[in-house]
Amino acid sequence: MSTSTTSPVTPSELSQLLEKYRGFVEDKLFPIDLDVVKGPFRSFLPQLHSLREQAKTMGLFAPHLSPEEGGLGLTLVQFARVSEILGQSPIGHFVFNCAAPDIGNMELLHMFGSASQKSTWLGPLQKGEIRSCFAMTEPQLPGSNPVHLATTAVREGNEYLINGHKWFTTAADGAQFTIVMAVTNPEASSPYQRASMLIVPLDNPGFKLIRNIPIMGEAGEDYLSHAEVKFENCRVPASNLIGEEGQGFALAQERLGPGRIHHCMRWIGIAERAFDMMCKRAMSRELDIGKPLAEKQTIQNWIAESRAEIKASRLMVLDTAEKMQELGAKAVREDISTIKFFVADVLMKVIDRAIQVHGALGITDDTLLSFWYRHERGARIYDGPDEVHKSSLAKSILKSYQKKANG
Amino acid sequence: MSTSTTSPVTPSELSQLLEKYRGFVEDKLFPIDLDVVKGPFRSFLPQLHSLREQAKTMGLFAPHLSPEEGGLGLTLVQFARVSEILGQSPIGHFVFNCAAPDIGNMELLHMFGSASQKSTWLGPLQKGEIRSCFAMTEPQLPGSNPVHLATTAVREGNEYLINGHKWFTTAADGAQFTIVMAVTNPEASSPYQRASMLIVPLDNPGFKLIRNIPIMGEAGEDYLSHAEVKFENCRVPASNLIGEEGQGFALAQERLGPGRIHHCMRWIGIAERAFDMMCKRAMSRELDIGKPLAEKQTIQNWIAESRAEIKASRLMVLDTAEKMQELGAKAVREDISTIKFFVADVLMKVIDRAIQVHGALGITDDTLLSFWYRHERGARIYDGPDEVHKSSLAKSILKSYQKKANG
Amino acid sequence: MSTSTTSPVTPSELSQLLEKYRGFVEDKLFPIDLDVVKGPFRSFLPQLHSLREQAKTMGLFAPHLSPEEGGLGLTLVQFARVSEILGQSPIGHFVFNCAAPDIGNMELLHMFGSASQKSTWLGPLQKGEIRSCFAMTEPQLPGSNPVHLATTAVREGNEYLINGHKWFTTAADGAQFTIVMAVTNPEASSPYQRASMLIVPLDNPGFKLIRNIPIMGEAGEDYLSHAEVKFENCRVPASNLIGEEGQGFALAQERLGPGRIHHCMRWIGIAERAFDMMCKRAMSRELDIGKPLAEKQTIQNWIAESRAEIKASRLMVLDTAEKMQELGAKAVREDISTIKFFVADVLMKVIDRAIQVHGALGITDDTLLSFWYRHERGARIYDGPDEVHKSSLAKSILKSYQKKANG
Amino acid sequence: MSTSTTSPVTPSELSQLLEKYRGFVEDKLFPIDLDVVKGPFRSFLPQLHSLREQAKTMGLFAPHLSPEEGGLGLTLVQFARVSEILGQSPIGHFVFNCAAPDIGNMELLHMFGSASQKSTWLGPLQKGEIRSCFAMTEPQLPGSNPVHLATTAVREGNEYLINGHKWFTTAADGAQFTIVMAVTNPEASSPYQRASMLIVPLDNPGFKLIRNIPIMGEAGEDYLSHAEVKFENCRVPASNLIGEEGQGFALAQERLGPGRIHHCMRWIGIAERAFDMMCKRAMSRELDIGKPLAEKQTIQNWIAESRAEIKASRLMVLDTAEKMQELGAKAVREDISTIKFFVADVLMKVIDRAIQVHGALGITDDTLLSFWYRHERGARIYDGPDEVHKSSLAKSILKSYQKKANG
């Protein structure tokens, strides 16, 4: 895992790398990604693993990891640039083994895992031999208020006894382990110090995958799914605790910081591909002979506004990544909230305009637009609904005015 | 079919009827409709047909038809009021046998069908014994410019030979016949007089249902599907022509007029149910104990704006229906364009807000919101994209300024 | 004052009346209104009073008053239709003596004034011999929370001693009296029963007009002004109290109900004229020879959206007026909030689009658009900011859900 | 004039400079700028000139000029940073002698002026001894299509004879000379090679300042005004031609490139100050005791959205300035269009929200918000309406798709 702010990759090397990633994505992923997302996903696994091997051979695999871990040692900002390119295909991050939730779990275990956790779980994860998931959100409690957790992990001797109900445990289907957020210290004075993170192997008899939740018309499977799961008297060794008891939220914050950069750059990649599809359609669809849709001013407006908004998104995310790299995640909390709601909104607007330009074709599954329209609608909800980020950004800004008034 | 502007139903009888429809929909349809749309649709057909029998028994079946035809003889405006209530459930119009495309075909055959067409097709359709579809849109040509049609019907002796490729032929799967729009008079001077409408039984060997198009993640089946179909040397008796040769567009216009009223009222029904779900969720979901989402001003804004926009929609559609009833479809072309883009936009905004209020639940298929978010996205596209209606409304308005300037 | 729900004016007479008002406004007011608003207003008073005489001669004066009071006896709904026409000119309501704040004061005194108040103040006001104003908003306290009032009226013997600071006392400059809202019963248990309304003649030595507030670049004068005023040991006879002590808010609510209908219809009138200017400009301004702005799809979109939004506004306001006429102001509180924020928003959007279509000309004072852009910006603020109305509408709706949950 | 891409000012020196500018603007301009814009402007000239002297003494005057010309030698990007700070006060750029239209004329004469033009006009302009203006827009022809010009300059011997009608000649009142755009070569094959730029001293008897156009309620005067002017048989020496005949548009493009950067950064400065006023008001205005407006989520939304949009604006403008500095104005035409419409829109949205947060106070002239609401409305119109920039951006983007399709 590369968390360094210096990189073995120079700017001009990065430019060459970006071209290679772009070539790989356009040549090898674009031709198949629509079929893959139509599924069934598992039937494509051999093909996807073969692409992973090609990525390794070309020295492009796991760009976020340090060279020692089999990666390229990119900084956060450099990886962000790669991430936008990978994001243009719904299978981009998966093929290069830097997809959520695995990448977040890799970052977490890299920073806070014990030596044994690293050798058992992190190593195979980094090599792409296994997959993982992250069980945090609970169906009965608002995810936007993370101190509300009903799942408990009670220390009994050398074990933790876990009980609870989670959902939106992304990609649990087919994963080897999950990291679960559970209350271990209900009596802690601060609600932010009550929960801990624990590793649970999914073959544990106390773990139940209830269903892949049907989301926007599809339950999906394997990597492309979101599970509802239960922990019922699920026992794990105490050594499966990550970090210290009560550190759950602190670790989650660490995990979310770069995670939002990753999401935002992936969204920008999607927006760029939708934009490209919109332009191609505008040029090729003729209303009358020689009269392409592109001549319509409304469509020109959408193209111009989309270009402006995508550009604004990219500059803001890269600016935030630079600051985070330099000053840490805490220093850029306002920026993180800003890009979360700004880019999610831009993403959905661009997808919506691209659909409208495609007309009836846009609502079929014959293009990727339908997939994104459905599967990225969650972008305005997960990792904190936009409304929560707006409020917290505003409150943070206004706090400085409070200080001025009081000072 | 009731096309009269007088109705056997008095205002106070209508109020009672509306209550009965509301009761039926809430008591008998709400409990099952989410399951029905999850499908498979065919497995629910026995249950749905039993509901139709109940509707008949209660004197509520086919409200749009004249009493002689087994209906209630409602006027367009009265039916619009019923239609809003039925629209609150995705199976409402189906159960009462007034769903598109059947209702449009009933209107068409009622007004322009020959005696033989009426007895063969219209009768069983009105009784709900068979289903029908309407093949107009073509994949290679913009539906927004209806004079572009590649499908041809060539008169050969006592037959028409039909060849062509259509899609978005709603509910073709399981239907007994389609009405197809095809060019019969390519040499006609006006492009609006080149096409005709013909009846094609779907067991005709020249008809091929290629696929139920996967739309927004679902191909669906039976009534809940949109087919891609081909006519390959498909021969039908000349007597299957509806009206005269070259009347295709004129008839389509007649069909679309009330059709848009029906759609808009159905959309308002959906919006009302989504609104209701949004309010209930806002009241029941607590962010903290005793702190429901409803206390958040952003959510209050969405509720207030949705209420205003739905009310505006209803008043405009009813106003248009009244004028259409009185003055005919041609006289309200501007109003029809207005409600088409205004209500479609309101519908999608209300659904989107309701989803956001539901958070993660909103993107699952555990509520109807996901179904509507996906299946009503087309509302801004079919029957003419909103952009086309805006331009044509504006041009019509500006034409009157031209006259003033010239006069 | 006509508060009856029956009118001496039949529907067909109303149609004729509306034509007469339209003719008067277009022929006599449109040619001069731009000059009048450029001012100085007082220099136009003789001309405006002459127009009032013509209105009287033609039987069009004071349409809101009963025939006995010199008016036409129109119902609220009928007057609303007239009001839209008058609103197309910034001097329309003034000429016909039905402009705010006079019309509100007439309604108030008609319903709650004593015989002596009626003969002294109401009579001359109805005849247009004097003008009045209404002093409610205070600079230091939020107008959106009307129970906050710092102005006091202390009963001393047969007099009230008034002290306080008000602003946005519209048209105080040149008025003969004001109605002032002041706290008379600070100890009342309900904050809604602490204030009263009193009549203060403006030649009272305790009344000071501090300034006509410069608003959006103009202080204005006379009817076209908004004053900052002070009451300094201002004594009035106890008989100047309107109604009972503590009834201030109850009366204000009565005054605001129809007041918002009046405002909304006036706004719709403005929107219609701005719309008309936009269309004319679009047809006459050529980007290239024979290529008018009207051919641009963006401008077509604005025209179509404006037409839809104005139509929605009108239907909602008339619907609200009908219900208010039938059921009273209290029964339509939700509707009143709805039209307040909906129509104010539409008004500003239509004006803004019309300006943009006019280009550089649109920001000059060479058209009325600049006047409305500036002087109607307050529409989203006065009579309760839009945000307050949205919240109160939503809370009222959600209350019914509370009841269901509890029931 | 500094057009170099290298600067004598290092990054750390720039930081210090920015602090100095910020201090100057906040300490010396904020206390008086509201009064100055209320005017009359001329009465403040002595005070403003004294501030200029202070700026010179502090080494802050004319930051855009090279050290030899009495400036600081800042690059375009460095000046952009300063410009944002100056923009926070409506008199900032004037005091530092870098306000439009003077700055554009300085750039033009610096690059294309003859030695004699430089000594006669540029020198005094750079020192702030005289003012200038720029006469391009014509009332009868759309400014958005600059090849339409009716003003002519006919060569007669050693003179040009100029005739024409212009408006929006900013700051003509009190200026010593104008640069006028006039057709000299009507027969040129390209419409872009027909016009030229000429210097006209304003004491020329053929020049007439018809009026300072009343704009949004104010005609203004001197620097704060926009004139309508006429050239009637106005003769100037042929040596007053700038550059070559027919170069008018080429020069105008050069002038507009950096000009849009300047405008955009000034707009961002305004938006920042309006944002600051909005936050302060939100914290200080209490709806109830201890319940500031800031607690309202709607206001939090506005603050968060404004912060995001301003940040996006700044990053895009600085990015464009960097590219322009490196690659020239032509290479960034798409970016220039992008920032023009994006930032103008953000500016007006932020001002509008700030007004709404101020309530009634926001529409008075007691804060700067009213000034900006009125005087910056033109931002969406001048230098090309937003709609034109959107279309031209889209067409430029789509052209690359054309090439792909053809290649």
Write up this protein.
Four copies of one chain form a homotetramer. With 407 residues, chain A is α+β, with helices and mostly antiparallel strands. Chain A has three domains: 11-113, Butyryl-Coa Dehydrogenase, subunit A, domain 1, CATH 1.10.540; 132-242, Butyryl-CoA Dehydrogenase, subunit A, domain 2, CATH 2.40.110.10; 249-406, Butyryl-CoA Dehydrogenase, subunit A, domain 3. Chain A has helices at 11-38, 45-57, 76-87, 92-95, 102-112, 115-127, 248-284, 297-327, 333-358, 360-363, 369-375, 386-406; strands at residues 132-135, 152-156, 159-170, 177-183, 195-201, 207-212, 226-237, 241-242, 286-288, 291-292. In chain A, a hairpin with a 2-residue loop joins strand 9 and strand 10. In chain A, 59% of the residues are buried. The interface between A and B is large, with 43 and 43 residues.
Brief summary of the model shown:
The structure is a homotetramer of 407-residue chains. With 407 residues, chain A is of the alpha+beta class. The first copy, chain A, has helices at residues 11-38, 45-57, 76-87, 92-95, 102-112, 115-127, 248-284, 297-327, 333-358, 360-363, 369-375, 386-406; strands at 132-135, 152-156, 159-170, 177-183, 195-201, 207-212, 226-237, 241-242, 286-288, 291-292.
Structural class of chain A: alpha+beta
**On the 0-100 scale, what is the average pLDDT of chain A?**
95
Portion in beta strands of chain A: 5-15%
Number of domains of chain A: 3
Radius of gyration of chain A: 22 Å
Question: Main β-sheet of chain A: number of strands, strand sense, barrel status?
Answer: 4 strands, mixed
Poorly predicted runs of chain A: none
CATH fold category name of the largest domain in chain A: Butyryl-CoA Dehydrogenase, subunit A, domain 3
Most extensive interface between two protein chains, with residue counts: A-B, 43 and 43 residues
